Amino acid sequence: MKCPVCKTPELRPTMIEDLLPSMGCGNCKGSLVSLLYYRHWAEHHKPSSDANEPATVSELPADTTNALRCPKCERIMTKYRLTGTVANRLDVCSLCDEAWLDGGEWQLLEQLHLSDKLPAVFSDTWQRKIRSENSERTRQEILRRDLGAADATKVETIRDWLKDHPAKSTILTYLYRD
Question: Which of 35, 51, 83, 142 has the fewest beta carbons under 10 Å from its own?
Answer without folding.
Answer: 142
